[in-house]
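[audit] Reproducing an earlier prediction to check determinism. Same input, same settings, fresh worker. If the tokens differ from the archived copy the diff job will pick it up downstream; this log only records the rerun itself.
[audit] input (166 residues):
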Amino acid sequence: MIAPACRADDSMALANKYLELTGTAAFLQQGFESGIKSSLDRMRAQGAPAELVDSIQSEAHGFFVENFKWDEVKPKLAKLYADTFTEAELKEIDAFYETPAGQKAVAKLPTLMQVGGQIAMSGVQAKMPEFQQHVAAMVQNYKAKAADTAQPPAPASATVPAQPTK
């Protein structure tokens, strides 16, 4: 009965080590800021004043710092990893991230993921205007069909049905 509890403690410790080795807290902050950056870049491209964009960026950073509580998130993430991987697997994962190659992966993977995503989406983005036109046509067709089915029925005939005779 005692052994499983020890393994769970070891798994949690190994999962916490993984979170530290991979710089997960900083990675999450970078992810948030990267998501905001694309919106800010669009604003700049559309002619928003630099002062406004910079103010929004500063506000977003403050919002993240105020609301992202690593001390609350870390135990939940550690449990997620401890529940997903065995103790042996966590030891292997941690061992990798302790190597120079593992640390290089930590440093390079965020950029690789971002650039890789851009590469993967470039074909989709190139065809986006065509897709948008197709969707607009679908919407128009839908509206036309809805308008046809919403037409009031033809007026009833002005003749009064014959009354049965007695």
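[audit] rerun output stored. Observation attached for the diff report: The chain has one domain: 2-143.
[audit] end
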